[in-house]
Amino acid sequence: MQLLAANAALIVIDMQNGINRPTLGRRNNPDAERNIETLLLGWRATRRPIVHVRHISRSPESIFWPGQSGAEFQPCFVPMSHEHVVEKNVPDAFAATGLERWLRVRDIEQVVIVGVITNNSVEATARSAGGLGFEATVVSDGAFTFDQRDLTGRLWPAEDVHALSLANIAMDYASVRPTAEIVQALNGG
After folding, report:
1. Start and end of every Isochorismatase-like domain (predicted)?
2. pTM for this structure?
3. Within 13 Å, how many C-alpha atoms sit on residue 14's CB side?
């Protein structure tokens, strides 16, 4: 990976308490939170911009309904006062949130995307980032998903769902890199 611009933004998607509910099922990448936290600390140390995305559901039955603990950020991902927070109601963090404008006003061209769910909000956001002309990177081990049934009822392991989603992203929208490469780029090398 080439060097990261001094204003490359880290976009942390939906790292909320609700994502840890056992009802969501079995997940992949148990080290994702540690990797995301490593990147978050690196961004803070280098004073690069950070965007925290929070899903606020329109459905009262959702774990992300406003006012419930599930909608709150996980303790290690609580934004600092100077970090930007975007609230979204659909998977794509760019849809009706002002995120594109916030990035453009600051002349931010590079975005690094981490969070959940790989095949939902991460993929939707990466697709928009690439489509809008941002130089986007998704951190392969800084995201995770859950086992998922297809429309025929077949259960797909989270590892396969994750891998296919990353392949979709890499096809046309963003580069896909592991945390170690991003940390190296963050540190100038």
Report:
1. 8-148
2. 0.96
3. 29
